[in-house]
Inverse folding.
């Protein structure tokens, strides 16, 4: 992994107090300046799609403003709509008004957009690839991109394989003879179950070697997700207590307040479990639970992540009945607005049995984690958008306090706030001032914004840059994808065999079905919803 600078330490402010360093004060003056990526062409299949305009092009702009794009760089958008280069550029220029994450300076944008080209073509048509070949040859001349190409497959998954095969048949995957490298970024979903993911891996590997394949999980583009590794391994104080001896349980919440939006046809065959768990949530678990890798090298990190996934225990269908909860939202109120139930959403089957909420209890059965439950929940139309990992430590023994008014000690809790409020908080007990012994739970908060300011980002910058520089650390390897599917497959099978009895079973705007609360209550716990971390600016 590049650019993992530890920087100078910043002193953390407590509670409402101001931090002791100014925003942006935490980077060391000795950090080497970031280096631009090398010469290459990015080919986006799905050039006129949502991802391109909302995330990829704004991310390229952010890379350009950060000095991280090569002067020898160009982009080709491939799409079915007939458009000239000029019309495509014009459209992207307009889209940037809406989706840019920082002010667009016209000179800088012009310099980027001039390098963006359009190729009209159908993915099924061999002619598309022949014309792409010609165009790439011209761009190599014009922009000195040296035959280095990466293909971003922002397309329907059913076209992943044929697109790769056709690129290969046209000579566009072959490295070496023309001197350039060839890489492919593949969006999710990578398969829809274990068998299909295995098959896709096998088929793609007929054409490409693993080091050319970049399976993207956009959660790994989030700063706060990357920081899990730094937080754990760059600080001497956490690693010694990061295990079953000190940690009671872990809770991961990935909540969304939006419904299924315009994605009915995709979601209604996918559901919350497939959509969020084998990829995003298992990434969070693997980073949270992995052993220290020997280096930030792609294989060292991914080997350790894969071990965690393989250590997640498998259960019989009977056991799964009490470990896996599913839900579907009915109508309700979110942010003060009435919203329809899932079955009333556009292009969703009126009797749909697809789940929009999942809660699971998982165990990582290795020496570090045996006996520590990992509870996770994710869903659409929950009361708010929030992603957090809460680590609850074992309670201190009460004996010292038995003759005092303190009846119960609250456990310490560390919460990694992934989004939207980005930060870390630690809860501990403190004496409430006064002549009797009373305890209060207090929180020590770190808000990213206070220390590092806010960095304009769509979350794709780092991932694109890493692909350009050949660093696959933050991408999923074939075995990780398959391990992720192995975890959820038994649940998919069970849910397929036993249809849900009472969907919809939670109202939009609530925290999911009652069974999700029961899941924790049976173990004597409750779902934690930590307070948002407020930056000094927003207080
Ligand atoms: C996508 C899912 O992968 O992640 C969506 O398909 C979900 O259903 C999205 O809304 C959540 O991403 P984020 O970055 O908003 O948490």
């Amino acid at each position: 992994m590049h650019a993992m600078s530890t920087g100078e330490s910043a002193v953390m402010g407590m509670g409402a107090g101001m931090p002791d360093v100014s925003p942006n004060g935490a980077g060391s003056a000795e950090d080497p300046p970031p280096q631009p990526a090398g010469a290459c062409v990015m080919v986006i299949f799905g050039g006129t799609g949502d991802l391109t305009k909302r995330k990829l092009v704004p991310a390229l702009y952010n890379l350009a403003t950060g000095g991280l794009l090569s002067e020898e760089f160009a982009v080709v958008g491939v799409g079915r709509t007939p458009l000239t280069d000029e019309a495509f550029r014009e459209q992207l220029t307009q889209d940037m008004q809406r989706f840019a994450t920082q002010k667009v300076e016209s000179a800088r944008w012009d310099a980027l957009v001039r390098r963006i080209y359009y190729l009209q073509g159908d993915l099924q048509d061999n002619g598309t690839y022949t014309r792409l070949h010609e165009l790439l040859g011209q761009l190599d001349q014009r922009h000195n991109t040296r035959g280095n190409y990466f293909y971003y497959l922002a397309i329907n998954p059913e076209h992943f394989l044929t697109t790769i095969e056709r690129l290969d048949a046209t000579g566009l995957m072959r490295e070496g003879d023309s001197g350039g490298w060839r890489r492919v970024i593949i969006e999710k979903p990578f398969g829809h179950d274990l068998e299909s993911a295995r098959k896709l891996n096998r088929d793609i590997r007929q054409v490409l070697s693993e080091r050319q394949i970049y399976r993207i999980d956009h959660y790994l583009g989030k700063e706060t997700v990357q920081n899990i590794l730094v937080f754990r391994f760059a600080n001497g104080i956490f690693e010694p207590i990061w295990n079953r001896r000190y940690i009671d349980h872990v809770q991961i919440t990935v909540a969304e307040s939006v419904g299924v939006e315009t994605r009915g046809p995709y979601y209604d065959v996918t559901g919350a479990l497939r959509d969020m768990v084998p990829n995003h949530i298992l990434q969070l678990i693997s980073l949270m639970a992995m052993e220290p890798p020997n280096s930030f090298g792609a294989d060292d990190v991914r080997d350790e992540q894969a071990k965690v996934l393989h250590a997640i225990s498998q259960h019989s269908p009977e056991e799964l009945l009490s470990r896996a909860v599913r839900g579907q939202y009915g109508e309700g109120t979110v942010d003060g607005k009435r919203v329809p139930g899932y079955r009333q959403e556009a292009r969703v089957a009126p009797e749909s049995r697809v789940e929009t909420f999942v809660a699971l209890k998982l165990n990582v059965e290795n020496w570090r984690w045996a006996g520590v439950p990992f509870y996770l929940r994710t869903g659409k139309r929950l009361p708010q958008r929030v992603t957090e990992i809460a680590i609850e430590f074992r309670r201190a023994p009460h004996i010292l306090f038995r003759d005092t008014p303190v009846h119960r000690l609250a456990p310490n809790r560390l919460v990694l706030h992934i989004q939207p409020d980005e930060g870390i908080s630690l809860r501990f007990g403190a004496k409430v001032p006064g002549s009797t012994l009373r305890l209060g739970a207090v929180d020590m908060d770190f808000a990213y914004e206070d220390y590092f300011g806010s960095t304009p980002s769509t979350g794709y910058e780092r991932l694109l840059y890493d692909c350009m520089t050949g660093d696959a650390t933050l991408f999923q390897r074939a075995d990780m994808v398959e391990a992720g599917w192995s975890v959820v497959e038994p649940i998919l099978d069970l849910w397929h065999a036993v249809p849900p009895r009472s969907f919809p079973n939670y109202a939009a705007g609530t925290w999911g079905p009652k069974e999700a609360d029961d899941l924790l209550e049976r173990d004597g716990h409750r779902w934690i919803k930590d307070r948002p971390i407020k930056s000094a600016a927003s207080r």
